[in-house]
Specification:
By secondary structure, the protein is α+β, with helices and mostly antiparallel strands. It contains 11 helices and 10 strands. The N and C termini lie far apart (56 Å).
């Protein structure tokens, strides 16, 4: 399916490219060809991200009233799955940009600022990402940020340190979670251009997998931004604005990229099973009961994970309400299943699956990152459990 942008309207500053879901396999294959080298070097995947941009995928979720193609939640989920199948590092960086555009109608930025971002996006890859986690705080789901926004004569000045900022060296905008220094502090997202003085990227990302995401630490020292570069500034614990989508929904949809990793791992297992013909057996491993059972388990895990993700995406597209805890529970299940699927494939191949020349080795390393994106199970399960217990608590 091709989705083309509408004719520019009065609200539009730039004409954004459409996208073609029929080209996803082509884009995925191109990313996969470059992925081993980016994994080996850890270099920022600029060329792959340019390809994603030129295919119209970075702005696929921009609403039609802003001149975008208006891709649905289901469309974006398909895109992230395909990018994850090709190169999950690229998919993660891209997803951090795609999702803010997708939820923009429900959680709008200042209008003029968003027009500026879209004008840049029409010309070149314009990457966005939230900077939330902090060395002292850990996950952004716990406590308040130590990063401080101080009032100035012309706007705000930010000081603080963030970690695990995916795509840091290639971002155009940092979406910095910070607390104000007001007598009664408020918290919100401060939208910071990457070219602003006072930003220092520290190359700290040296991980087992997802090596090309460049999720480095970033220090902000007296970084000045205009007064209106703010998104949803409110007292701590305040209810989100009406119509805001539960944050667990975009998190679940983003898990589609790890489903893509697992699908790529599945293909690697199948290729090995068809090609390997042990002399003592005299036929391909794919014909043995052991591999048939293992392949069946992998497919069952991945099909059910896919149904969960696309089920929630479809609910949102149909305008049906989605409970945040339901999406959070689905994310827990999806992460468990894609991880187990890849591990099952590795057990089938044994030592051959751990060889660096086998793509399964890289997929196994990459899938280990699926469960560490906040909120992890340690944070999600108590929330889900408390709600389930409360629903059947005896009346006083």
């Amino acid at each position: 399916m091709s989705v083309a942008p509408p004719s520019p309207s009065a609200a539009t500053t730039a004409r954004l490219p459409g996208f073609d879901l029929g080209r996803l396999d082509e884009v995925s294959a191109a990313l996969a060809a470059r992925a081993p080298e980016y994994d080996r070097t850890g270099a920022f995947p600029r060329e792959s991200l340019r390809l994603v941009h030129e295919a119209g995928l970075l702005t696929a979720g921009v609403d039609r009233r802003h001149g975008g193609p208006g891709g649905s939640f289901t469309d974006i989920t398909r895109i992230l799955l395909a990018l994850g199948r090709g190169d999950p590092s690229v998919a993660l960086i891209a997803g951090m940009t795609v999702v803010p555009h997708l939820v923009q109608p429900r959680s709008p930025w200042p209008e003029e600022l968003y027009r500026r971002v879209l004008a840049d996006s029409a010309e070149r890859p314009t990457l966005l990402n939230h900077a939330r986690a902090e060395p002292e705080l850990g996950s952004s789901t716990r406590g308040l940020p130590a990063t401080t926004a101080r009032r100035t004569a012309h706007g705000w000045s930010l000081t603080g340190r963030k970690r695990y900022v995916t795509g840091a060296e290639g971002l155009s905008w940092f979406l910095v979670w910070a607390a104000t220094d007001e007598p009664e502090p408020r918290v919100g997202t401060f939208i910071v251009p990457a070219t602003a003085p006072g930003i220092e990227i520290e190359p700290t990302w040296r991980q087992l997998g997802m090596r090309a995401t460049g999720s480095h630490e970033v220090a902000f020292t007296d970084v000045e931004i205009p007064a209106d570069h703010i998104h949803e500034l409110a007292p701590p614990g305040a209810a989100p604005p009406p119509g805001t989508l539960p944050g667990s929904v975009p998190l679940l949809l983003s898990s589609a990229l790890y489903l893509g990793v697992a699908r790529a791992a599945q293909s690697a297992v199948h290729s090995f099973a068809h090609a390997r013909v042990p002399s003592a057996l005299g036929r391909a491993l794919a014909t043995t009961g052991r591999f048939e059972r293992g392949a069946g388990e992998i497919e069952t895990l991945l099909t059910s994970a896919e149904q969960l993700i696309f089920g929630v995406a479809g609910q949102v597209d149909r305008g049906e309400p989605v409970r945040g805890l339901d999406a959070l529970a689905a994310k827990v299940v999806v992460v468990r299943q894609v991880t187990r699927a890849v591990e099952t494939g590795l057990r089938l191949l044994g030592n051959s699956g751990l060889a660096q020349e086998n793509p399964l080795e890289r997929h196994f390393r990459d899938i280990q990152s699926a469960g560490v994106h906040a909120p992890g199970e340690d944070a999600a399960l108590p929330l889900i459990g408390a709600a389930a217990l409360a629903a059947e608590a005896p009346d006083d």
